[in-house]
Design a protein that fits this description.
By secondary structure, this protein is an alpha/beta fold. The chain has eleven helices and eleven strands.
Amino acid sequence: MELSFAHSPCPNDTFTFFGIASKRVFLDGHSITVCHHDIESLNSFAFSGKYEITKLSFHALLLLGNRYRLLRAGNALGYGCGPILVSQHSVQKSDLAGLRIVLPGEHTTAHLLLRLYCPEAQHRTFVSYDRIFDEILADRADCGVVIHESRFLYEEKGLRKICDLGQWWEETTKSPIPLGAIAVRNDVPTDMDEAIEKAIRESLMLVRNEPALAQSYIRGLAREMDDAVIQKHIGMFVNEFTMDIGDQGMRSIEQLKVMARSAGIVSW
């Protein structure tokens, strides 16, 4: 069986999945074709069921219901790694209802967190995550939510933190924040899940043991080329939850689902 696997070009994903992409790690009896898209494109493709295995936002996974099922390996959860709301100006939470806010995609977890944090913030627009700074600096938006490597760079752009949405989540729930999921389309036999998870873990361990193997692959796809930023990105988003989501991770996803349901964002 030939399987398609789509993930982002972000350093945490290219680090984790290099072994699979480079064919150094195999799935017995099956071939895997890897491709790359930004996170909101991955979300959109998931709604059309384009790929058998895909990275997507946990927000999108909740909206998709049972069309995809979550794997236990390869996911992006953690502490201190959430989206950050930034602006050129000092902004209070009470101001957000009247401000223009730009976000990195309608179905991203960043958008879901903003809606949970401040339901009154209604003036929301969406661009790819790497255009958030430009929208704010060109005064096409008053605030923006930054993710990925942009969360390390906003101060260099002259922006200030208004709210760390990940910190808000952690303080509210006492749980790690579920950001990006790895899921399998529901028509893929369920008995393949364990083998796919095993391949992901082998891929991750390969690069953990020999980081130099993946260096060119990671740099070749990264939007931000600074080595220090790339290493910060990997260090922040590749953690114990990437190897196995664990009971704590599963509880955090259930908390996200309950809060989204209570807010009327998801219906199941």
